[in-house]
Amino acid sequence: MSAFSLNHFKHIECGSGGMILTDDDALRYRAALFVDKCYQREEGVRDPFFLAPNYQMTELQAAVALAQLERLPEIVQRRNRLGSRLDQALAEIPGVSGQRVRPGDTHTYFYLFRLDLEKLGATAGQFSEALSAEGIPNKAHLITGGMPVYRYRIFQQRSAFPSSTYPFGDRTYPAGLCPVADEAFERWITMDLFEHWSESDVDEIAHGIAKVAWHLARRRAAAPV
Questions:
Q1: Domain ranges of the chain
Q2: Please, what is the end-to-end C-alpha distance for the chain in angstroms?
Q3: Exposure of 3 in the CB half-sphere (CA atoms within 13 A)
Q4: Where does residue 213 rank: exposed (0-12), middle (13-18), buried (19+ CB within 10 A)?
Q5: d(CA 16, CA 62)
Q6: Could you give the CA distance from residue 25 to residue 57 in angstroms, rounded to a whole number?
Q7: Fewer Cβ in 10 A, N or C end of the chain?
Q8: Assigned fold of 72-222
Q9: Cβ neighbours of residue 52 under 8 Å, at least 6 residues apart?
């Protein structure tokens, strides 16, 4: 069983919603119940036997998503080629590094790159602002909405349900609990990467990243000790 989100920056999208794929009919049936309040519509019965949300997407959205599935191999191939091109360019820029792709693996290219903050003498936010000034859409800390996930209020206040700490119990999430996530959060920049971009678009983006990195590193080297 696998699940896919279909919001606007994914490989295929239909406004919102998602897809579940399985070759197991029992799992398909269970998933159909889960996304539809556990109403047994195939039997014409409304007698829920487990708690389930209402996660239905419209038939129009589903039709759009299914139509795009035919283009998915082409989209994946194109994004992979552009992402690999950008990876190669970033490998030549001091203070910047892309995500590592292990031999035999294929990157989906939701694009992120990592900053050497000590070499650049700037925060991810400052680097992001400079990139935006170069006309390159990007975000620092985009994926987690401004903080590592474990620092969200739902964990800090254990507030999944009103007047209850369920399912957290006595578990707490103090600052520093996830040092690897904290460190990564401070260093990553997120960018879009779309299949309709050209190779020259990618080259211009790489040039803009190099320009910002070079400027910040030069300023860092010139700063008094």
A1: 2-69, 72-222
A2: 56
A3: 7
A4: buried
A5: 10
A6: 20
A7: C
A8: Aspartate Aminotransferase, domain 1 (3.90.1150)
A9: 33, 34, 35, 36, 37, 38
